[in-house]
């Protein structure tokens, strides 16, 4: 009987792919770690305990078959590992890069609980599919027999693109409409290259286009066509726009030049990475070079902003967050990366006002303390009287999260039902909105969430749309 290739966690230490040094990686927008060599990936996969109840899979929104493809990797069966990984996710190498594994699969790894350090699931997932691309194992999309029906998808982010792939394979004509000039949504324009290099996204987009999915770029619903016009053109519609309305701050001076939105800052930076002309960057407005930068917020978007500012050559970068480190919503790994790169975190601090009229010159800050728990159970921050101080700032970036845009108004569709938060109201049994044949998925239903949940929603809504379209086709045949 052959030796068990697994259960090596007692002898083999947890090792992540080696990160480039902080000074070196702060000079460019490349990903900060190189991929594993094959022996290292096999050894790290072999640390999996193959537990009877795989909490890693349970806590993965996609319920990926993690222990199974770890075992295949440990056994050197990489192509099979890729095929199994790909069976539950349309973008495994992207999830491997940007999922907060410390809060999901790796954070719930059994050997993490035992004190041996979690299996490096995300890094192995990235390695498997990157290898598949290099080896030519990633097969083109093969559309099923034509069903004579078409769907329109509004939004080319992860939920929309996942749905497009599943529906094209099922034999539908698929058209995707997106306001940007490149598909990918936040994968393309919101997430910096040091977390997700853009060729990784573009090769996925190119594969979808090669499979016959038509992506209409620079197409804004409401401007180029009303929602009702698209409903008349297609047999079903999916709204997967995400949430893009930035949350604001009510404070004196917030309108001063140099106080900018996080997404404007990140989009400008990513466009420069593509080689685009970006006047707002070139004139210095959205460029941190040589500036004292203050980022307000504690989520992953704030981490993207501080680390982007470092790479643009900021003079100093500070992050203000109103709670402490233990209560911040962003990934602790990202905080550690930012600190290594020279970012200073100013915990338990909130802006009270912004100095400057022609140009922001500073932020007046109040120290905070954690009081009684709020509605979510987290201790609510409250101002600590008499503790005010000032930070110099030439550029202030607001990274306070995102809400839904007013889609009924934007789309010219007053009957499109929304919740009190502005997200789309759906029947959760069918994922259908208040309009017949119009479905919704991703952040526009959930609120700002994770890419992996958007992909999961894309997978789920595909099943619901398929069922709806089969019933619609049957009714049409019966009427004929």
UniProtKB/TrEMBL annotation:
Q: Any idea which UniProt keywords this protein has?
A: 4Fe-4S, Iron, Iron-sulfur, Metal-binding, NADP, Oxidoreductase
Q: Which residues form the Dihydroprymidine dehydrogenase domain?
A: 25-136
Listed InterPro entries: DPD_II (IPR028261), FAD/NAD-bd_sf (IPR036188), FAD/NAD-binding_dom (IPR023753), GltD-like (IPR006006), Helical_ferredxn (IPR009051)
Tell me the Pfam families matching this sequence: Fer4_20, Pyr_redox_2
Q: Which cofactor does it need?
A: [4Fe-4S] cluster
Q: Where is the FAD/NAD(P)-binding domain?
A: 151-458
- The organism's place on the tree of life at top rank: Bacteria
Q: Name one GO molecular function term.
A: 4 iron, 4 sulfur cluster binding
Name used for this protein in its record: NAD(P)-dependent oxidoreductase
Q: Which organism is it from?
A: Sphingomonas paeninsulae
């Amino acid at each position: 009987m052959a030796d068990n290739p697994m259960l090596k966690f007692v002898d083999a230490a947890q090792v992540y792919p080696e990160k480039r040094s902080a000074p070196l990686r702060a000079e460019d927008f490349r990903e900060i770690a190189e991929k594993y060599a094959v022996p290292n990936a096999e050894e790290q996969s072999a640390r999996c305990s193959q537990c009877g109840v795989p909490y890693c899979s349970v806590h993965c929104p996609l319920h990926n078959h993690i222990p199974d493809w770890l075992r295949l990797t440990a056994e050197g069966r990489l192509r099979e590992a890729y095929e199994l990984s790909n069976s539950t996710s349309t973008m495994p190498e992207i999830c491997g890069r940007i999922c907060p594994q410390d809060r999901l699969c790796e954070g719930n790894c059994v050997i993490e609980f035992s004190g041996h350090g979690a299996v490096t699931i995300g890094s192995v997932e990235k390695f498997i599919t990157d290898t598949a691309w290099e080896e030519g194992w990633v097969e083109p999309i093969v559309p099923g027999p034509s069903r004579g029906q078409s769907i329109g998808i509004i939004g080319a982010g992860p939920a929309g693109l996942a749905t497009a792939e599943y529906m094209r394979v099922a034999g539908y004509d698929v058209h995707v409409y997106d306001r940007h000039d490149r598909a990918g949504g936040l994968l393309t324009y919101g997430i910096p290259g040091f977390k997700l290099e853009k060729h990784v996204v573009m090769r996925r987009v190119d594969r979808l286009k090669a499979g016959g999915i038509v992506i209409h770029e620079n197409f804004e619903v409401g401007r180029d066509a009303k929602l009702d016009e698209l409903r008349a053109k297609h047999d079903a519609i999916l709204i997967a726009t995400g949430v893009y309305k930035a949350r604001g701050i009510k404070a004196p001076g917030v309108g001063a030049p140099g106080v900018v939105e996080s997404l404007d800052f990140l989009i400008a930076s990513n466009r420069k990475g593509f080689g685009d002309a970006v006047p707002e960057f070139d004139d210095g407005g959205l460029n941190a070079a040589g500036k004292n930068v203050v980022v307000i917020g504690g989520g992953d978007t704030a981490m993207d902003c501080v680390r982007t500012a470092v790479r643009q050559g900021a003079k100093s970068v500070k992050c203000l967050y109103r709670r402490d480190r233990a209560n911040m919503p962003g990934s602790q790994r990202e905080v550690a990366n930012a600190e290594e790169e020279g970012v200073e975190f100013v915990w338990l601090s909130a802006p009270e006002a912004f100095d400057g009229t022609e140009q922001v010159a500073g932020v007046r800050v109040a120290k905070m303390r954690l009081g009684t728990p709020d509605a979510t159970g987290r201790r609510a921050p409250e101002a600590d009287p008499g503790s005010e101080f000032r930070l110099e700032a030439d550029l202030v970036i607001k990274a306070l999260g995102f809400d839904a845009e007013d889609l009924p108004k934007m789309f010219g569709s007053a009957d499109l039902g929304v919740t009190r938060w502005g997200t789309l109201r759906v029947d959760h049994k069918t994922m259908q909105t208040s309009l017949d044949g119009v479905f919704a998925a991703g952040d526009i239903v959930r609120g700002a969430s994770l890419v992996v949940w958007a992909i999961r929603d894309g997978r789920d809504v595909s099943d619901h749309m398929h069922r709806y379209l089969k019933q619609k086709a049957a009714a049409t045949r019966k009427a004929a």
